[in-house]
Amino acid sequence: MSWLQVIVLSVIQGLTEFLPISSSGHLRLADELLFGTDAGASFTAVSQLGTEAAVLVFFAKDIYYVAIAWFRGLFNRDERHVFEYKLGWYLIIGSLPIGILGFIFRDEVRTGARNLWIISSMFIFAGLLLAAAEYWGRKQRPMTELRMRDAVAMGVAQAGALIPGVSRSGGTITAGLAMGLSRYAAARFSFLLAIPAVVASGLFSLPDAFDPAGEGLPASGAQLAVTTVITFVIGYACIAWFLRFVQHYSMYWFVGYRLVVGALIMGLLAGGVISAT
Predict the structure, then answer these.
(1) Does residue 275 lie in a domain region?
(2) N or C: which end of the chain has fewer CB within 10 A?
(3) Residues 190-201: tens digit of each pLDDT
(4) Is the dihedral of CA 124, 158, 134, 185 positive or negative?
(5) Domain count for the chain
(6) How far from 10 is each of 2, 166, 182, 267, 269, CA to CA, in Å?
(7) Considering the domain boundaries, does residue 11 fall inside one?
(8) What is the pLDDT of residues 212-271, one digit of tens each?
(9) Which of left, alpha, beta for 139 (phi over 0: left; psi -120 to 50: alpha)?
(10) Burial zone of 270 (CB within 10 Å; 0-12 exposed, 13-18 middle, 19+ buried)
(11) Does 191 reside within a domain?
(12) Which of 94, 89, 179 is nearest to 141 (CA)?
């Protein structure tokens, strides 16, 4: 990979990871439009380590209290009524679908699923689902009213992000809104739910990012270090901005954006400007 490609993709990753617009879809499109090559799913997964580090720092206090409450509850039944203890289990159970399916379909995720016809279709389809959840969801339940069924629904939706164009945050927020959670609660749990799966995916993909076994370009250790720093800084700022945004504005802004981008990709593909693979 060239340094220009690394920097451009890192900036895009940091800007799009936490918004419901699909960071992997944007990275794939940028690769095709600007560089004519696909950096690969492994580089995408590694670049997400920076954004997830931003989540760890931003929610450090929440993570600390959840970890303490969960361990206390394991050995003391009287501590199991605490919400943070339950939240620990919600995060564990909610992370299982993407972990299991990601391992089973890891080869497909790195190859066929990165077809731009699939990505553009998912931009539009997932955008319409988000619009439906925004329209029909009650958006009333706060974070403290989160239940196991919410975690399962959002965990299953998160697994859909294995297909570029769906959006991990978009899928989980869509499910959260459909279950009646407020936008803020859905977004906050979505960020926390990302930590186990994305960190595991990034670490698992490190060897392949250096020497891709299938599709993709190799990156140096220095390039992977730089992408982690860039995505951390930009990702941290985006978390703060997005959590403020959802408290005042609807998801329709992102729905409109998704529909436009999806239609644009299809137009470029149909006109032969870019290649689907």
Answers:
(1) no
(2) C
(3) 999 988 877 777
(4) negative
(5) 1
(6) 12, 19, 30, 26, 25
(7) yes
(8) 555 667 778 888 899 999 999 999 999 999 999 999 999 999 999 999 999 999 999 999
(9) left
(10) exposed
(11) yes
(12) 179
The Cα 55–Cα 52 span in angstroms is: 5
140's tokens = 């009333």
Q: How far apart are CA 21 and CA 248, in angstroms?
A: 19
Quick one: tokens of 180?
């009646």
Residue type present at position 52: E
Cα-based angle 150, 155, 159 (whole degrees, multiple of 5): 150
Residue 220's domain comprises 3-270
Sign (positive or negative) of CA dihedral 63, 66, 72, 74: negative
The Cα–Cα gap between 62 and 265 comes to 39
Which amino acid is it at 65? Y
User: Which 3-state string (H, E, C) describes the chain?
Assistant: CCHHHHHHHHHHHHHHCCCCCCHHHHHHHHHHHHHCCCCCHHHHHHHHHHHHHHHHHHCHHHHHHHHHHHHHHHHCHHHCCCHHHHHHHHHHHHHHHHHHHHHHCHHHHHCHHHCHHHHHHHHHHHHHHHHHHHHHCCCCECHHHCCHHHHHHHHHHHHHHHCCCCCHHHHHHHHHHHCCECHHHHHHHHHHHHHHHHHHHHHHHHHHHHCCCCCCCCCCHHHHHHHHHHHHHHHHHHHHHHHHHCCCCCCHHHHHHHHHHHHHHHHHHHCCCCCCC
